[in-house]
Amino acid sequence: MQSSKSVLVSAAALLAALAVAPAMAQSAHDAHAAHSHAAPAAEPAPVPAQRWATDAPLREGMRGIRQAVQALEHYEHGHMDAVQARNTAQHIDEAVKGMIAACKLKPDADAALHGLLAKFLVGAKAVRESEEAPAAAIADMRAALARYPQLFDDVEWNTPAD
Q1: How far apart are CA 113 and CA 46, in angstroms?
Q2: pTM score, whole prediction
Q3: What's the pLDDT tens digit per position in 19-51?
């Protein structure tokens, strides 16, 4: 069990990382109150010798994010309006919130995951605040999606959806 000081440090680090998405910060902090987490990695997490295990909430959340990011391709091509894009960004925020609430990963895996989640929160915020598709932010979310299977053992990640 971690000391109160390390729990406070972890919570403070998480809140700092979530400052990019103020609407999510309070709910994410509330979700983390039940357990502590390692601080998000400042640098991209190195690929582990053995990918970290996943659980159902992580896999479900990442699939939801992948679907939303793929849908944003329509925004980039002008086939989705800003309101639809904001709604899609909300799906990303909800998936992140769900993963944070259900997270039971080991500290190193947790830190790597939070590095990815921060990119999704930043990207979703950029989509919400833009009247046209923020190409760089969407590309960053795609890069985070590509990074996920390098870090986490999700055997169904590359299985085509029915």
Answers
A1: 12
A2: 0.72
A3: 434 444 334 434 443 344 444 444 566 777 899
